[in-house]
Amino acid sequence: MLPKPVQNLIDEFSKLPGIGPKTAARLVFYLLKKPKPEVLSFGNAVNELLENIKYCSQCFSITDNEICEICSDERRNIEILAVVEEPLDIVALEKTRAFDGLYHVLGGAISPIDGIGPENLRTTELLDKVKNNPKIKEVILATNPSLEGEATATYIKTKIENISPEIEITRIARGLPVGGDLEYADEVTLSRSLEGRKKYK
Questions:
Q1: What confidence tens digit (pLDDT) does each residue in 174-192 have?
Q2: Axis crossing angle, helix 123-132 with helix 147-163, rounded to the nearest 10
Q3: C-alpha angle 130/134/138, rounded to 5°?
Q4: Residue 60: which region, alpha, beta or left (left: phi > 0; alpha: psi -120 to 50)?
Q5: How far is CA 49 from CA 15, 44, 62, 63, in A?
Q6: pTM for the structure as a whole
Q7: Distances in Å between the alpha carbon of 169 and those of 57, 140, 166, 195?
Q8: How many C-beta neighbours within 10 Å does residue 3 have?
Q9: Which domains, and CATH codes, for the chain?
């Protein structure tokens, strides 16, 4: 019933998380009402995302350079490394202004039911970083407080203890609800989680 270009874009919007067919259709018809320059600007922004965004060679967050702003900032505390699941978790933690160390993005969490094991994450890169950088004194396991996040934290803790037993391993405190995601937590909760971290046992 709908022209093919319209239906194609609805189908593509529907693939986005939290966007159903009705919302996708509303977005497409909203774009159809906008002036052509605005729609082209939207398309160019998507194209730039594909062309210019890459992963930081040090922490694996997203950046438009070889090394992200955080990793290249000489004011950061290089003795503390926070391990997070996704780049959006860094954004959430940075909003708190309670953490001034560096990050390592795993790219997800261990989830056997989804077929995701340690080999599917950037755990090897993390362990190499910890093993080869004597300046790291503490690793904060800032994975989400979900079953998958806990499994990932436990795995990393065991591995780090085996290769670098002198490094202190901490876990963000339980200021976050179980099953919640860092990106949706408010700044106060995240600040308390960081301030109340303790040795991971």
A1: 666 767 788 887 786 787 7
A2: 30
A3: 60
A4: left
A5: 17, 9, 10, 10
A6: 0.78
A7: 24, 6, 9, 15
A8: 7
A9: 4-52 (1.10.8.420), 65-199 (3.40.1360.10)
